Amino acid sequence: MSQNRLYTEKEFGNVLRRASELQQEEGASAAPGLTLNELQHVAKEAGIDPDFVRRAAAELDQEPPEKGDLLFGGPTRLEFKSVVDRKVSGPEWDGAVEVIRHVIGVDGREVLDGPSREWVHQDQMGGRMRVSMTPTDQQTRIHASYRMTEWLWLHFIMVCVGIAPVALQYALLDLGAVTETGIALFTFLAFYMIGWVVFRIFSTRQERKMRGLIARLHKLLTRTRQAESGPIE
Question: What's the whole-number mean pLDDT along residues 120-126?
Fold first, then answer.
């Protein structure tokens, strides 16, 4: 086995997993894991930008979005969280608002609630989007959410549109009860699936946008911290 062999990402994961199994089989004490700084150092040695490791770790700490009912085609609420290991100042919040407005594409409005700061936007369907930053002891918690329940009206609209051809069928045609019922069910299902697909596409796009937003905010505030304390070695 050559010491200079290059291992792929998949092989690297397999090697670490097998090494852990061998260690447990031989009764050696298990390693407690690695800190973020240690992970960044390992990644840097492997040619990976430590900033991407930091972003990946932030995504790992986030709660997964609600799956929603399969009946609707996607989650009705998106929620993402991140933590910066220091308190964020007012001017930094102003810079974060500019990032939010750029990513979301609307101005929204700012709300101050004691030490917490919040950006709020209500879309054309009534869905409510919130991005907040709340300082704790020595941290700042970033929270982004988007309630999309109002967008479920798409399903209702599609079904209502489907009522027209069904009503016309019963009024003008005499195809027999079984045939007419079959056509009615097919028509309702077809228009409902259009609403399902549209909501699926919409919710997927919004999830990517919100995930990208929380990553950019974490990156912005972390880089500000690095500029104050120097780069991580």
Answer: 88
Contact residues for 156 (Cβ-Cβ < 8 A; gap 6+): 195
Residue with tokens 């369907």: 125
Question: Which residues, 6+ apart, have CB-to-CB distance to 48 below 8 Å?
Answer: none
Q: Is the pTM of this model over 0.90?
A: no
Q: How far apart are CA 93 and CA 79, in angstroms?
A: 20
> What is the pLDDT averaged over residues 123-129?
87
Give the CA diameter of the chain: 81
Distance between CA atoms of residues 200 and 74, nearest Å: 5
Q: 3-state DSSP call for residue 109? A: strand
In order, the DSSP letters of 75-93 are -SEEEEEEEESSPPPHHHH
Strand 116-122 and strand 77-84: the pairing is: unpaired
Cα separation, 88 vs 140, whole angstroms? 6
Tokens of 232: 């991580």
